[in-house]
Amino acid sequence: AQKVTQAQTEISVVEKEDVTLDCVYETRDTTYYLFWYKQPPSGELVFLIRRNSFDEQNEISGRYSWNFQKSTSSFNFTITASQVVDSAVYFCALKTYQGAQKLVFGQGTRLTINP
Amino acid sequence: DSGVTQTPKHLITATGQRVTLRCSPRSGDLSVYWYQQSLDQGLQFLIQYYNGEERAKGNILERFSAQQFPDLHSELNLSSLELGDSALYFCASSKDRGLQPQHFGDGTRLSIL
User: Which residue in chain A has the smallest CA separation from B49?
Assistant: First the structure.
């Protein structure tokens, strides 16, 4: 079975601080995909990134960066110089190559950036 | 804007009733997925359709059913509604059977009184 754990339920930081959201996953499959989605207060789910299990290169997109480590089954997300607009619930998700192509979501981390 | 359109945005109804949620996928996307987001269960996969055919089922109750039409839009039917069905229902779409990223609509918030 697949499982995603986001141990941090809520994080609150002051604007311009860096913040890292943790994600640990479990799967027996060797081929899988990991995702991060953002859910702002307005409620929609916004796709941020997809990584496949064969690509462990870290990725940076502006103030966002992702650290994928297969050895620890983690796919952590860092926001550098956080802004108030980054306030949202962030979900990590897993999808395996075989079987049902469904996303298995973690419980989410509510991030609040205070001015 | 993800390109996935869900209607209605809000729905308020009573226990025992039946409702239909509608989803139009992004142009060119063949797969449609339905998810339920509730406070106690989080985001749960319900069902997937690919090019009109059911492809995968998740934690979908027997009171719920879905279909995908020839024009690729999809409907999720919820019947004999219970208080616990109150949730945010998301539709997502992707180009293929599931390896491509899923793009989500804004959701339909269902409130059962």
Answer: A101
